[in-house]
Amino acid sequence: MDILIHILRRASLVLATVMATQVAAQPGPDTWPTKPVTLIAPFTPGGTTDLVARSLATQLQALWKQPVIVDNKPGAGGTVGAALTARAPADGYTLLLANVGHAAASALYKNLPYEFTTHLESITNVAQVPNVLLVPKSAPVNTVADLIQQARTRKGALSYGSAGVGSTQHLSAELLKSLAGIEATHIPYKGAAPMITDLIGGRIDFAIDSAGSAAAQLAGGHVKALGVTTLKHTSAFPNLPTLDESGLPGYATTTWYSIAVPRGTPPAVKDKLYRSIVEALATQGMKDVLAGMSAEPGGMPPGEFDRYVRSEVQRWTGLVRDSATIKE
After folding, report:
1. Could you report the per-residue pLDDT of 202-220, keeping only the tens digit for each?
2. Which of 173, 168, 177 shows the shortest CA–CA distance to 148?
3. In the chain, what's the furthest Cα-to-Cα distance?
4. Is 253:172 a contact under the CB 8 Å cutoff?
5. CATH number, domain with residue 242
């Protein structure tokens, strides 16, 4: 009996040691990250999503003393990158730079291999960017009313571009079509950069793009801006009217960017990630980048931002379901 008791005690000690080792191996707020972190940017290089991702990665890398690798995974309006993130290990080493387009994806795509608010967890928003309605420099329109009238005169003949089905450019233009009661053909691209190239070349008739990208094109004299998508005038474009006051009452959209992780990521890691993003947003380098994009910095508490994301999902899926043409 004494031998049996001794064996059981030894076994209990070994088990306790193993369990303690396993607990110690779990990532905690002071140890994570201990290796490179991948930040998936779900659109092509050169666009606003890529700029935000790389700017944030630079600041987080400095804070963590670990490489933060931006991995561009474009396709299907950002859902390719989101699906990759949803399938990744829930250990904090794979992050997604999500945006407003992900809020509508489940209504737009059949057989989507993930659900944004089920398989991914939103940490916080990184930036909120106003959008601008743009037309080619050579376009015979100078106001929102001109564009709407042209669309009605040339019924079904106009086209608009976006960074992909379900992207912020796509959703914003569909909202314009819905409120104005006009038709226009959607031309999806794999990112904002090729979309802008075709807009400049006059191969599409209009596009709604983020303020940062729009500012660069306007400064170069390549396009014309007709209005901003916020309800209030923006400091970046003080002379531009809002679409709301240009004959589209209630029109309001912004491009938001956020960080999401696979569901099941340890709470300590999510907390460290949130605090790190807030710290990164407070750096002068990040402030300068966001100011150049006419963006407002994020940092919303996780619970509050989760509620905001769910309200956006409800809003945009409602638009998709009410539209006869938005699904592709």
Report:
1. 999 999 998 878 888 888 8
2. 177
3. 98
4. yes
5. 3.40.190.10
